[in-house]
Each structure stands twice: as structure tokens, then as C-alpha cells.
Amino acid sequence: MTQLFEFDDEQLASKIEKLDLEEADEPEMPKVGEFASSDGVGSRLAKSYEVPIDLPYQAGKRKKKVTDFQPIKVLGKGSYGKVILVKDKSSGKLYAQKQLRKASMIVNAKNYERTLTERTILERVRHPNVVKLFYALQDFDKLYLILEYLEGGELFHHLSQERILSEKIACFYVAEIILALRHLHLHTGVIYRDLKPENCMLNRRGHLVLTDFGLSKVSTESSSLFGTAQYIAPEVIQGERYDSQCDWWSLGAVTFDLLTGSPPFTGNNNKKIMDKILTQKVKYPFYLSQDARDLLIKLLNKNPQKRLNCDIEFDNKRISTKSSLL
């Protein structure tokens, strides 16, 4: 475990600094309201906070230590760790510090695997719609992932306030999710497997950023049952071999959630929800436009071979023939 977090954090921070400078002139997006995580099959629980501070950041000349970051407040707690808002004492830059106890990894090997997976994926991914990893540190008791602080909070928080989003705003968020998933699928060979509004955060400009890669898989195929019940694809529930197509089902479920205020299938427990996913048809509200309905029908196809594959369709420039919503 001592080798888990050994990589050149200065080089990583320098690369991310360059990426930040390149993104500085990106256009503003539509705003929704005011700006304000899982073991196997999870449930929807979320809290969001707002700290309207953004100070300039420059990578230091020496390697960072845990003591270089001053804790400010707890942003959230999970089953085996928590996320704290911290400030770099030398620069004033704010970060989200994900803390994970080494003891929990010794007791539960899955916690170790998920931490290693998340660290590995975030180290290799460079995309504006995927959370950035700046440093990976450790002390005697804990491991620390120093991540990009996303002031906008969770998309779930805004959705709970607005109840439903207009198709214009939902389309913007869905398009950015597609960009992130395509990058993960095509450039890093990652199946995300846990797409839900709670894992979609907003940065200070309001752009969507995917977070929490503990359940992701660095592979082209898998057969493990992971995810959150309301958003799991049928082939995952059935224990079949599946690929990145499962993420496009989850995108359909998230899109349905944004436009209607709830996922397509709900229930009192995870088993009931997953039974409905396998056996029932999706009921579309009357107020959805034909474009929205067309996109949802193609994403929420129980047959992964017939489901809309945005990885392929965008490459062939045929997405417009599939749905004019995008």
C-alpha cells in the first residue's frame, strides 16, 4: 500500500495549471437557480455547499505535504471516507480533499481496489468535464486525493430545487455528460458505471464535471453488478458481459430524471427497482417534446445492441438523424 500514491505531483500540477489557463476564456453557460458518495448498488443521498471564493493558483517548487492544506469544512461523508474543503496555505487555492482511512482498506479489500482505481483513472484523464486530480498524498493513517473544488455543487441539488429542468438547459448538461463519457470510453478505456445526478458537479462557470470514479472499470468489458439502482442498465442487472453501452442507458435515466423530476423506474427498495427495469416499459410524460421522447426511447432501449451508441454515432456524424434534441 505504500506504493499506492507515488507519482510526480509537481509534474501533474503543472500540466493541470496549463489546462486551466487554456480553459480561462471558455463561454458562460445557462445557470439554474443559485450555485450551492457507494458500495455496490447505492441510493440517492446528497448534500451540497457553496463557498464563493476563487483565488489564483501556481504550482509550488517543492512537493506538497498534507500539512500544507488547511481544513475549512466537511463537504460530505461516505461509507469509508469523507471530503473536506481545504485551502493551500501558500497560495490560497481551494481544493476538495478526499480522505480515506488505511484501516478501512485493510479490513475491506474492495475499498483498496476502488481507491486505487479512482487514483489511476484520474491521474491519466485530462478533460474539462472530468474532475481534476492535483495531488495524491498519504500519512500514517490516511490517504488523500487533492481534487478540483467544484463550487457549483451537485446537479442533484439544483434538480431538487427546480424540480424539473427545461429541455434547453437539460440538453446543455446532457451534451457535456456525453463529451465526458466519450472521452472515458474512447481515450482511456474506462466504463464509468455510476452515472447519476449526485456524481455530476458544476464548476464556478456552471459547466458539468463528472466525479467519483470508485466504481469505474478500466476495461472494455465487465460482468460485475455496480452502480445505483435507479440508473443501472438491464444487462448489468442480469449479470451478463457488458461494455460501455451500459453508460448510455444510465445517460437516458439521468436525462429522464432531469426532464421529469425522477428516474424512469422507482420503488421502495433496490430489488423492486431493478425488477421494474428488467420487466416494465418506460412511461413517458405527455409534456415531453417529440425530440426529447425520441432521444430517451433510443437511450433507454433494453437491448444494448439496439441502444443509441453516442461513441459511434458522433464519430459518424449521424446523431442528428437519431435525435434532433442534440
UniProtKB/TrEMBL annotation:
GO terms for molecular function: ATP binding; protein serine/threonine kinase activity. Pfam families: Pkinase. Coiled coil: none annotated. Residues 69-319 form the Protein kinase domain. Keywords: ATP-binding, Kinase, Nucleotide-binding, Phosphoprotein, Serine/threonine-protein kinase, Transferase. InterPro entries: Kinase-like_dom_sf (IPR011009), Prot_kinase_dom (IPR000719), Ser/Thr_kinase_AS (IPR008271), STKc_AGC (IPR045270). This is Protein kinase domain-containing protein. It comes from Ogataea haglerorum. The lineage of its organism: Eukaryota, Fungi, Dikarya, Ascomycota, Saccharomycotina.
